[in-house]
Design a protein that fits this description.
By secondary structure, the protein is an alpha/beta fold. It folds into 2 domains: 149 residues, Rossmann fold (3-Layer(aba) Sandwich), CATH 3.40.50; 145 residues, Glycogen Phosphorylase B (Rossmann fold), CATH 3.40.50. Helices cover 33% and strands 17% of the residues. The strands form 2 sheets. The protein has a 6-stranded parallel sheet, with helices on both faces. It has a 6-stranded parallel sheet with strand order 9-8-7-10-11-12, sandwiched between helices.
């Protein structure tokens, strides 16, 4: 609540809204979410997410409750808006490069006393969330995690000045025993075709790592469109393929892995969030803004921002020191 002098009392109930379905974007919000948790340890915090990314937050210690909402379609949005229970003292609406109108309506429907989010004018949108505090979008070349931390800071989480340390995803202990130790995972696919480094070059990376004794597995996502098959043909042999696994099981694998190498896509962020040594390969997207947060992350990008301009040797120059540092190869 707001005091007479304009300051705010400690919130007892906080709702954090991130219903969009980009896994990487959600994980880039985690430092800010943890900063809010650290600043208000006594508050009951609810994290509102979409169904696709719910497994990436369920069971984590960032929130007391995870509310899963489906905002696509009139029926899903109407059901999400029909809420009950006491209203929150503070709601924070996390947005990155895009603005979700349905997410904004959820924030409005929360009826929270304070509704904090970035000024929708930055996105060319009107204020569907009925924000009580429209925060100017940060200026300058900032990493996306720093952008979200600025929003947490504006909401009163002064601890956002200090980024909470990794890991940003703690795997389920019951799953760790099912994951092999010391494996190397290569992910040649990506949902966005423009994010895919040529699969044949992943094969060259695999060949070099195998010559050093690494146990290699491919990662294949549902939108990868034959990238693993192409990499396998270029390699001239088959390797184990990890496909169809849940986010918690992938996280357990990554937590016990020696190395992950992949394109700019969700599993890259998940691997880094577990503390796995991680190499991300970038073209049009800038790792200075979009690299995953983690304790041992390396990013590879050509000077002309073209994936075609990145040779396998450049990726190996980033990957091999990580293996040496962690005494795997």
């Amino acid at each position: 609540m707001t005091r007479a002098d304009g300051s705010h009392s400690e919130p007892l109930r906080i709702e954090l809204f991130r219903p969009q379905n980009q896994l990487g974007d959600l994980l880039l919000n985690v430092p800010a979410i943890r900063a809010v948790r650290n600043r208000f340890p006594a508050a009951h915090i609810t994290l509102i997410v979409g169904p696709q990314n719910a497994p990436a937050v369920l069971g984590q210690g960032w929130a007391d409750r995870v509310r899963v909402v489906a905002t696509r379609g009139v029926r899903g949005l109407w059901s999400a808006l029909a809420r009950s229970g006491p209203r929150a003292d503070l709601a924070i609406y996390f947005t990155t490069v895009s603005y979700s109108g349905s997410g904004a309506w959820l924030v409005r429907a929360s009826g929270a006393t304070r509704r904090v989010g970035f000024d929708p004018a930055h996105y060319g949108e009107r204020d569907r969330a009925a924000l009580t505090e429209a925060v100017p979008f940060p200026q300058g070349d900032l990493h996306q995690s720093a952008v979200s931390l600025a929003l947490a800071r504006a909401a009163g989480a002064a601890s956002a000045d200090v980024v909470p340390p990794p890991p940003y995803f703690v795997p389920d202990p019951s799953l760790l025993g099912r994951a092999p130790g010391g494996a190397v995972y290569l992910h040649p696919g990506a949902g966005k075709v423009k994010n895919r480094w040529p699969a044949a070059r992943f094969a060259e990376v695999a060949r070099t790592l195998m010559a050093r004794g690494c146990e290699i597995s491919w990662i294949e996502g549902p939108q990868d469109g034959g990238c693993v098959d192409e990499a396998s043909r270029a390699l001239g042999r088959s390797l184990p393929v990890v496909r169809g696994e849940t986010i918690p099981m992938l996280a357990a694998r990554f937590a016990r892995a020696a190395l992950y190498v992949g394109n700019d896509t969700g599993p890259l962020h998940l691997a880094a969030a577990t503390g796995c040594p991680t190499v991300g390969i970038y073209g049009w997207s800038d790792p200075a803004a979009w690299a995953p947060v983690g304790r041992c992350v390396r990013s590879v990008r050509a000077a002309d921002a073209s994936l075609e301009s990145i040779p396998p040797e450049q990726v190996l120059e980033a990957a091999l020191p990580l293996l040496q540092e962690f005494a795997i190869a």
